[in-house]
């Protein structure tokens, strides 16, 4: 065991330390509990421990922030991200109850959070790779996004309270990761990029040599840094969603800060597209494929359209700000979120294909030919989303571009 003093000095815990930790620092388990612990994290940054009582079946998650990222020790990260994550989960639970795990305890010395075990759910990216469908997802995620994004913004919140939240969730180190990995590095031949051999020529011609595209990514990057519109999740991909057919839980909001609302919506769309492209290129023709691909087409369409509709309803219900109620302002505000959504979906599609942090939906494709096709589609769709973002207002608009690139490439 590394240490048993959890009250004075931070250290990164091993499984046996975590058992000791829950026994001494939490009153979650029963006296006669027989605890076992396993590190189950597969994300890029943190350590996630599942602690189970073999006697009574109770279980809990302990998530600890380490001093460097798991994906690469080039990223030295403030463990304050664990405070941000635990506080955001509580805020999300107030704004969108039922869509996040319950937080039981936050420890600012050990930089860890104790939270609800969601082992009866599956990480959505894994479930999608397994070709499972979730017809309720679009409804769930759009409720989550409309509630968390609109209700945390200036058009609903008292402005001084909103500014206090902006201060509390300034998240410079994790924002810097996104500024670099999402908006900067994928758009030039950066040494940290990881480009699949079959895709390289396409990337050089279609992405790195396109000055008009690069200009648009600069606009999106500076908007990301300067537009403190909503308290965004900041990393809302399908690996940040736990799912089962009747339940959707959004986890891992450590990248949260006040940024453009469209960042979250765009990330959801892009990651559904990765699953869609994977399904199209890897599945054999037949009913299983058409059902699964059909589910994803409908979900991509519905996420945009339901977000639009629910946003308008929530606006009428919650917005009290005098000037925000001027006729025409809601349309102007929502149009700018939708424009950001398309631009961010485009950046996410490109950065997960050529940048440092990839997605299994693409890297798991065994055939080099199929993977190359999938990657080129993602790049071409991403580029079109960025360049044409002014014109992407409906789910149908998104599917038109996706179908067009899928047919062309
Ligand atoms: C160094 S972290 C790499 C990526 O993992 C996280 O999930 C974020 O998406 C980040 O960009
Ligand atoms: Mg994460």
What's the SSE blueprint?
Blueprint: H1 15-25, E1 35-39, E2 47-53, E3 59-64, H2 81-95, E4 103-107, E5 112-116, E6 122-123, H3 124-129, H4 137-150, H5 159-168, H6 172-184, H7 200-208, H8 211-226, E7 230-232, E8 241-244, E9 247-250, E10 257-259, H9 262-282, H10 287-318, H11 329-354, H12 360-363, H13 368-387, H14 395-408
Antiparallel strand pairs: 1-2, 2-3, 3-5, 4-5, 6-8, 7-10, 8-9
Helix pairs in contact: 4-10, 6-8, 7-13, 9-10, 9-11, 9-13, 10-14, 11-13, 13-14
This protein binds 5-S-methyl-5-thio-alpha-D-ribofuranose and magnesium ion (MG).
The site of 5-S-methyl-5-thio-alpha-D-ribofuranose has 10 residues, from helix 6.
Give a description of the structure:
The chain has 409 residues and is α+β, with helices and mostly antiparallel strands. The protein folds into two domains: 15-115, Phosphorylase Kinase, domain 1; 122-408, Aminoglycoside 3'-phosphotransferase, Chain: A, domain 2 (Alpha-Beta Complex), CATH 3.90.1200.10. It has helices at 15-25, 81-95, 124-129, 137-150, 159-168, 172-184, 200-208, 211-226, 262-282, 287-318, 329-354, 360-363, 368-387, 395-408; strands spanning 35-39, 47-53, 59-64, 103-107, 112-116, 122-123, 230-232, 241-244, 247-250, 257-259. It has a five-stranded antiparallel β-sheet, with helices on both faces. Strands 6-8-9 form a three-stranded antiparallel β-sheet. A hairpin with a 5-residue loop joins strand 2 (47-53) and strand 3 (59-64). Helix 9 packs across helix 11 and helix 9 (262-282) runs antiparallel to helix 13. The longest helix has 32 residues, at 287-318. The protein is globular, with a radius of gyration of 21 Å. The structure holds 5-S-methyl-5-thio-alpha-D-ribofuranose (SR1) and magnesium ion. Magnesium ion binds at residues 43, 235, 240, 252.
């Amino acid at each position: 065991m590394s240490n048993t003093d959890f009250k004075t000095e931070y250290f990164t815990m091993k499984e046996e330390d975590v058992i000791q930790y829950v026994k001494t620092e939490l009153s979650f388990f029963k006296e006669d509990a027989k605890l076992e612990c396993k590190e189950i994290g597969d994300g890029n940054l943190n350590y996630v421990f599942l602690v189970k009582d073999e006697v009574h079946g109770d279980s809990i998650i302990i998530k600890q922030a380490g001093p460097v990222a798991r994906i690469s020790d080039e990223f030295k990260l403030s463990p304050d991200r664990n405070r941000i994550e635990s506080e955001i989960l509580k805020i999300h639970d107030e704004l969108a109850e039922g869509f996040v795990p319950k937080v039981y305890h936050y420890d600012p010395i050990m930089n860890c959070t104790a939270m609800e075990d969601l082992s009866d759910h599956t990480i959505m990216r894994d479930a999608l790779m397994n070709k499972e469908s979730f017809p309720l997802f679009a409804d769930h995620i759009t409720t989550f996004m409309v509630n968390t994004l609109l209700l945390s913004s200036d058009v609903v919140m008292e402005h001084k309270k909103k500014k206090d939240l902006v201060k509390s969730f300034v998240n410079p180190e994790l924002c810097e990761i996104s500024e670099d990995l999402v908006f900067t590095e994928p758009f030039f031949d950066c040494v940290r990029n990881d480009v699949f051999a079959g895709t390289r020529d396409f990337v050089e011609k279609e992405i790195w040599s396109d000055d008009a595209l690069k200009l648009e990514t600069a606009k999106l990057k500076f908007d990301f840094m300067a537009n403190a519109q909503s308290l965004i999740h900041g990393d809302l991909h399908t690996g940040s969603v736990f799912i089962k057919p009747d339940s959707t839980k959004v986890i891992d909001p450590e990248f949260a800060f006040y940024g453009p609302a469209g960042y979250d919506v765009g990330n959801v769309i892009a990651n559904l597209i990765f699953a869609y492209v994977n399904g199209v290129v890897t599945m054999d023709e037949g009913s299983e494929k058409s059902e699964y691909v059909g589910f994803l087409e409908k979900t991509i369409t519905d996420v945009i359209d339901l977000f639009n509709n629910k946003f308008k309803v929530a606006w009428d219900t919650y917005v009290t700000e005098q000037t925000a109620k001027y006729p025409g302002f809601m349309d102007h505000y929502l149009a700018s979120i939708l424009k950001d959504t398309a631009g961010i979906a485009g950046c996410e599609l490109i950065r997960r294909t050529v940048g440092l942090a990839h997605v299994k939906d693409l890297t798991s494709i065994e055939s080099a030919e199929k993977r190359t096709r999938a990657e080129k589609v993602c790049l071409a769709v991403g580029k079109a989303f960025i360049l044409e973002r002014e014109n992407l207002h409906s789910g149908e608009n998104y599917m038109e571009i996706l179908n067009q690139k899928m047919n062309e490439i």
